[in-house]
């Protein structure tokens, strides 16, 4: 096999953030609701100087520069996002401006969207291109992330912002496992964006959580089936088979509950009620034998408490190391699982031979459970510049230090930025007037792109700080 997977990665996030503790006070909710109840620490955001194009350009530029990647070595570039600023022109086409100087215009791929799932679809397209007869030997790049903002109200603290860039190719240190997947797609109205004049989604919070967990159930069962037919004669698939689990992270509490749900699934899928007596989870779940995976099992406080308790130690060992960025940046939507993979690399030194399960969920809904395996021994040339070990990724991304360097803003400043974005959104659809962003460029880091103006034909212009 070619061992196709993630060769290199990085993340771009804005320099401004607001603390969830400050937001609790400002919003007048009970102390601990956002920090303990949702499990979040801080939330990244930007004003009207940044849009999804400038953020994707920054993610791409950082990746190319840090890993010294030649633009001519790229044969495919895909963007996965749900931050739509044009109903026709893809963000990918805007990113081609960075390829201009190299003269390489022979780059396949465009944008993919479906809520938080676009990045995964872009990732699958890239890997599958490399496995196909159309592959010409060059590497692929996936850019994925969003500006996640909600209208005032209880969903607002679950916003966030960040864009991940990944170099995909053969002989990778983190290889996507062939033939192992559990897919669940369904028609649901849990979260959608029908109002093209606003960045805010329509969201049914309770339904979205139920859809997420139901999708997890289905994907887990199907992944288990594909695992057991690939590894015939091995122990049946269970949480034991995974060293780490990475989840789409709207907020950390749901990630904790998702691992709890997997423990519950292991119990339910371990056989008939008589056979479950042998399960290590028996003492936690015996009283839910009659409920199984029925609707009664979703949003069930007693079952939630039992599954959190049953998976407490496994959460610390298998999930916690992947949660840093999601707790600090908030929900990066399409980029969420990939930011979590980057957090995992940052916090776990040696992933060689380790299996990382990844659950990607996008409302509406599209979801997949798939996996990567750490693979450092296959390289003939470990010392090249493309970041072929995960430790060089960690060094180049320098996540913890970059999080420290951000600028903390007050909830009032955060609200002002949200109003700025609302105004710019309204103006962007009224042709005939020029829009000059009002936010200060002092928040744009050196070398980064920002939105300079939108002209009377709604063409966007960017500058570099
Ligand atoms: N201290 C500790 N815990 C608290 C406190 C407190 N002071 N106050 C509340 N909590 C707990 C609650 O008990 C609850 O815990 P539980 O989840 O175990 O029941 C949790 O904090 C959240 O409180 P709720 O009252 O349920 O929160 P609310 O209904 O106001 O909003 C929601 C939460 C629905 C997630 C909302 O933020 C939302 O709609 N977000 C957007 C949708 C979303 O992210 N969906 C997830 C999947 S889809 C996607 O990725 C977009």
Automatic annotation (TrEMBL):
Q: Lipid biosynthesis among the record's keywords?
A: yes
Residues binding CoA are: 154, 208, 257
Q: Which UniProt keywords apply?
A: Lipid biosynthesis, Lipid metabolism, Steroid biosynthesis, Steroid metabolism, Sterol biosynthesis, Sterol metabolism, Transferase
Q: In which pathway does it act?
A: Metabolic intermediate biosynthesis; (R)-mevalonate biosynthesis; (R)-mevalonate from acetyl-CoA: step 2/3
Q: What is its EC number?
A: 2.3.3.10
Query: Which Gene3D superfamilies does this entry report, sorted A to Z?
Result: 3.40.47.10
Annotated Hydroxymethylglutaryl-coenzyme A synthase C-terminal domain residues: 174-464
- Enumerate the GO terms in the molecular function aspect: hydroxymethylglutaryl-CoA synthase activity
From what superkingdom does this record's organism come? Eukaryota
Q: Which Pfam families match?
A: HMG_CoA_synt_C, HMG_CoA_synt_N
SUPFAM superfamilies from the UniProt entry = Thiolase-like (SSF53901)
Which GO BP terms sit in this record? acetyl-CoA metabolic process; farnesyl diphosphate biosynthetic process, mevalonate pathway; macropinocytosis; sterol biosynthetic process
- Asked if Cell division is a keyword of the record, the answer is no
Per its record, the protein catalyses: acetoacetyl-CoA + acetyl-CoA + H2O = (3S)-3-hydroxy-3-methylglutaryl-CoA + CoA + H(+)
Q: Domain Hydroxymethylglutaryl-coenzyme A synthase N-terminal spans what residues?
A: 2-173
The enzyme's main class, written as a single word, is transferase
Active site per database record: 82, 116, 248
The cross-references to PANTHER family, in alphabetical order and at most eight, read: 3-HYDROXY-3-METHYLGLUTARYL COENZYME A SYNTHASE, HYDROXYMETHYLGLUTARYL-COA SYNTHASE
What is the similarity comment for this entry? Belongs to the thiolase-like superfamily. HMG-CoA synthase family.
Per its database record, what is this protein's job?
Catalyzes the condensation of acetyl-CoA with acetoacetyl-CoA to form HMG-CoA.
NCBIfam families registered for this protein in UniProt: HMG-CoA-S_euk
Q: What is this protein called?
A: Hydroxymethylglutaryl-CoA synthase
Organism in which the protein naturally occurs:
Cavenderia fasciculata
